Amino acid sequence: MLAWGSGAAGAATPPPAPAVLADHTFDYESGTEGWTAKKDGRLRDGDVTWSSDVAKSGAHSLDFWLDGRRGDGTLWVERAFPVPQGQPGITVELSVWEWNGGTGEAAGWPVVAHADRAAPAVEEDFVELGRTDFDGWRQYTYSTTIDVHDVGTFYVAFGLSADKESPRAHYFDLASVTVT
Predict the structure, then answer these.
(1) pLDDT tens digits for 74-110?
(2) Phi (first) and psi of residue 105, to 5 degrees
(3) What tens digit of pLDDT does each residue of 118-143 get?
(4) Which CATH architecture has domain 22-179?
(5) What is the DSSP letter of 17?
(6) N or C: which end of the chain has fewer CB within 10 A?
(7) What does the alpha-carbon distance between residue 176 and residue 170 come to, in Å, rounded to a whole number?
(8) CA distance 137 to 92
(9) Domain ranges of the chain
């Protein structure tokens, strides 16, 4: 006897999403929330301050001011996170919003990110996520896998690299770090 089924041939169940081990969101309403400003030796000058000028979420953001008159250098904020117990490797996803008050070539500086076992120290430690050649808010995301079997801490950072010879201000807000 031949039996006919109602199931669709070839239909597969998608694999389950990886378990979220840690999820952190920062809207900078209570200061820098543990993020520390750093810059490399190539940047002439730069600073990150807590600001109420513009915000994506709430009333505050981080104001990045860079003096790019050397046409080189990177300004970032970084934060250490504990490695979830029993994890030899983790995937880290960073999402952050950046605001730029201009468009075109002069406004288009690289937005950069870093996630690794060690904190970043120079521009080459970062990955470029895109350029700020637009007006208003834009979301940037970065994802990477880190071998953490022998460390207790990993570092996440984001910021800007100067490649135009002018001073600029940009704002960052609503950063999230998800660990799976």
Answers:
(1) 999 999 999 999 999 999 999 999 998 876 665 678 9
(2) -55, -45
(3) 999 999 999 999 998 888 999 999 99
(4) Sandwich (2.60)
(5) P
(6) N
(7) 18
(8) 23
(9) 22-179
Give the Cα-Cα-Cα angle 56, 136, 111 (nearest 5 degrees): 85
125: phi then psi, degrees, rounded to nearest 5:
-80, -5
Question: What's the rounded Cα separation, in Å, for the pair 177 and 180?
Answer: 10
Instruction: Using CB atoms within 10 Å of the CB of residue 160, give its burial: 0 to 12 exposed, 13 to 18 middle, 19+ buried.
Output: buried
Buried b (16+ CB within 10 A) or exposed e, 116-139: beebbeebebbeebebbebeebbe
Contact 87, 152 (CB under 8 A): no
Q: Which amino acid is at 151?
A: V
**In terms of Cα–Cα distance, which of 107, 87, 96 is closest to 174?**
96
Residue type, 24: H
